[in-house]
Amino acid sequence: MASLTGKRKRDNNTGSTCAGFIFVQSVIYMIKVANLTKRYGRKTAVDDVSFEVKRGEIVGFLGPNGAGKTTTMRILSTFLSATGGVIEIGGMDIFRESMEVRRRIGYLPENTPLYEDMRVIEYLRYRARLKGLHGASLRSRIDKVIDSCDLSSVARTIIGRLSKGYKKRVGLADALVHEPDLLILDEPTIGLDPNQLRNIRSLIRNLADRHTVLLSTHILSEVEMICERVLIISDGKIVASDTPANLVGLIRGNPRIITEIKGDCSEIVRKFEAITGVTRVSSKALAQWNRIVCECEKGTDVRSEIFRIALQNGWDLRELTEEKQNLEDVFVSITALENGNGQTLK
């Protein structure tokens, strides 16, 4: 739990002021969730979920549609109540100290709610005042988030006239304006063009210097580039929790070597089948080339042997790669495994 003192001034060595108290930053975990359950009548949307997120982490929160992902994020942001369980944000119980928790959270929902008849800078000033900013600190923070979210060119534009991508950036600026300890971002990159995606990706990656980030997205390549750790929820339960690299390692099957090679196909297949560690060879004709796939025993890398054989036989070689799995493969495999037999990977 965070420690409290009766002091009202900020102490940079110990913590940040909230409602007249100093919260000592000795809390290792920004988010602690234990046995969280949410039911809608007979439907259990979140089923006894437990997980933790450390300070300064950027964590991807993934799940199929209807898995309980958005419900969990709305509960964490105090937007929804829970049926049962315990949640702490920065050491504070979100159900007993919800107003204090809200001051420390920046929340960007999937469908960004904006006042579309206001200009961008007017809206951000309004939102900053609601979040307790005034005077020089208000002006400084608005200038900062406008610059960070690349909104300078549209600062005086009416929000309703903005593209979907710019509206998303206004929502992100709103979530950041009070410099919260925790950012909860639900699909923050929807509607962005490739240049905007790159800018937002860089922004989110740099946020870990000052914020903890819980990020939900269906663009799994973004998670691999941004997130240090991944939580996967399926059917209301956490079914995987680890780094993207470790999760890929968990489901990695037998290696498959892809070769595109020119020569007599039947002779190539015969020689490749004789390589130690190769269990199966398949082939496909590609005009003058042959696409050969060698399935191998685990822990085996036969690429150097394939190259040696091609060199010895004078076969032209234009591709020799090991088929790589990614987070999308992990996501499909783990959620299918959970739906199939209830196993969990952690």
What does this entry look like structurally?
This protein has 346 residues and is an alpha+beta fold. 33% of the residues lie in helices and 30% in strands. Among the domains are: 4-104 and 180-248, 3-Layer(aba) Sandwich (Rossmann fold), CATH 3.40.50.300; 253-322, MTH889-like domain (Alpha-Beta Plaits, 2-Layer Sandwich), CATH 3.30.70. It contains eleven helices and 17 strands. The strands form four sheets. Strands 9-10-11-6-12-13 form a six-stranded mixed beta sheet, sandwiched between helices. Strands 5-4-7-8 form a four-stranded antiparallel beta sheet. Mean pLDDT is 85; it is low at 1-26 and 340-346.
Key features of this structure:
single chain; 346 residues; Rossmann fold; Alpha-Beta Plaits; elongated; disordered C terminus
Largest sheet features = 6 strands, mixed
The sequence of SSEs as H and E is EEEEEEHEEHEHHHEHEHEEHEHEEHEH
Beta strand %: 25-35%
Low-pLDDT windows of residues: 1-26, 340-346
**End-to-end distance:** 26 Å
Average pLDDT reading: 85
Radius of gyration: 26 Å
CATH fold-level assignment of the domain at 4-104 and 180-248: Rossmann fold
Structural class: alpha+beta
C-alpha geometry: elongated
What is the number of helical segments per DSSP (H or I, 4+ residues)? 11
Looking at CATH, the homologous superfamily of the domain at 4-104 and 180-248 is: P-loop containing nucleotide triphosphate hydrolases
